[in-house]
Amino acid sequence: MNINSNIKFYTLIITMFVGILLQSCSEEIDYFSDDTNDCRNIETINTEPIDWKSQLEKIINIPPDVLKNSNIELLCYEVVDDINNPIKENTYKNVLKKDENMFPFFSSDLKTIKAISKKEAIRLKSQHQKFTFEERDKFVDNLNLKEAKTLNLKWNNNGVETNTICIVSEKEGIIYDNFITNTIVIKDPVIDVQICTNKVGKMTPRLKSSSEFIISTTQTWTLKAEATWIWGSDRGHAIITHEGCYSGKKFSYQNYSASHYFALGNSDAQVEKTGKNTIAYGYGFATPLVTINLTFNHPSFNLSFSTIWGSTAGETGSHSHPLLLN
Fold first, then answer.
1. Nearest residue to 195 (alpha-carbon basis) of 223, 164, 221
2. pTM for this structure?
3. pLDDT for 155-187, tens place per residue?
4. Three-state SS at 236
5. Of 61, 27, 187, 162, nearest to 104 (Cα)?
6. N or C: which end of the chain has fewer CB within 10 A?
């Protein structure tokens, strides 16, 4: 056999081998599984660019309902000075600490705000706010004001023209203002329920009978609480998720989770199992000077806040999946 014949022979053998392999792959066992919805939600965090001018313009032109309901409006702003050396940093930190104006004091339902003076704040307290100023001064002392600007904000506070001192930077947007930093806009929590039914086949080759399918169902309960800045951008959220899994009509097991974040302040969200089909949950938001205390004492959470001055919001509760679906 010559060289050309050898090449043709080996080419034929390789071709036959590839054909057999492809045929084998095409006859791979089917498992008749139809899982069309995994019921998972993907959370995205608002990545809106930081621009202090846009932030202030939105407060002026598109104020949230809580400001409109409270008869508080930002009228205008002007740049006072650039902070370009350590001496100016210390000077303006002292100026911030001496600012007596526009401390937010929320109604019990968080729907309206009074913008009060420092003297009024010392006399007042509620379940949402208690006022001390030592921690506020420590917070201001730790601010990074390098390459920042100081602005004068002019407000209409229920018919009285009032000014606050606001620190901004090109990199971070608004850094601090008595009213803006310590105000939380809370949306009403949203509850979403998803029911997903999937056919899942047994691991048997070439199933022919539909009776060999198992009906698997998940019922996912999600609570989402959101907080925004007063210019409308996302400031934070807390999400509680409780998933009940059923085989046929029998409750099998549960999954649960909690997530949270909050810009320029504190947040917490926790969940605990309290039964085969039941969870307890709690969440909280707080402005920078407030510590959140969220503790689990079976069968529920307790939510409280430190006595440092600031604004807070949150709630606790529980949720149960039905042991049998209707």
1. 221
2. 0.73
3. 999 999 999 999 999 999 999 999 999 898 988
4. strand
5. 162
6. C
